[in-house]
């Protein structure tokens, strides 16, 4: 979703986009040139957000995975936030395609057969009586 202003929803997955002051403020904990941090918002008050960080994005495009460590980020260190949401249309199309693929797979197994002899043939091929 595009950059949002105001308070993000409580306990939601967000990307906080940092301003210059924010990059300086988080440099000691998160490293230099941090552009945005992604994770789950665990708390917020009038001055700050507490976010369990999953990914840190640098200005140059590099990213670093984190394991949900909580970090407090002052609200005046951010320009806003972004949220990721699934595209409903694409999700429905993907689910339908996967369902169709599974159905085709199982139907094709029945068409191939199990390799059993035809009824009444009895015995091994090539064997004489």
3D architecture notes:
With 129 residues, this protein is of the alpha+beta class. It has helices spanning 20-30, 88-112; strands at residues 13-18, 34-44, 48-58, 63-74, 78-82. The protein has a five-stranded antiparallel β-sheet with strand order 4-3-2-1-5, with helices on one face. The longest helix has 25 residues, at 88-112. The mean pLDDT is 79.
Oligomer: single chain
- Outline: elongated
SS-based class:
alpha+beta
Overall average pLDDT? 79
Strand order within the widest beta sheet: 4-3-2-1-5
> What is the number of beta strands?
5
Low-confidence stretches: none
**Structure annotation, total helices:** 2
Strand content: 25-35%
Q: Taking Cα atoms only, what radius of gyration do you get, to the nearest Å?
A: 28 Å
Name the helicity range.
25-40%
Domain count: the total is 2
The SSE string, one letter per element, is EHEEEEH
The largest pleated sheet is described as: 5 strands, antiparallel
- The termini sit apart by 76 Å
């Amino acid at each position: 979703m595009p950059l949002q202003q105001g308070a993000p929803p409580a306990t939601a997955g967000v990307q906080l986009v940092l301003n210059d002051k924010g990059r300086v403020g988080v440099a000691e904990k998160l490293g230099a040139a941090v552009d945005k941090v992604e994770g789950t918002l665990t708390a917020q008050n009038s001055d700050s957000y507490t976010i369990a960080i999953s990914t840190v994005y640098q200005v140059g495009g590099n990213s670093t995975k984190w394991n949900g460590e909580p970090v407090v980020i002052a609200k005046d260190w951010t320009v806003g936030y972004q949220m990721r949401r699934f595209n409903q249309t694409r999700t429905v199309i993907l689910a339908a395609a996967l369902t169709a693929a599974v159905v085709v797979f199982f139907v094709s197994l029945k068409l191939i057969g199990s390799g059993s002899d035809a009824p009444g043939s009895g015995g091994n091929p090539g064997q004489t009586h």
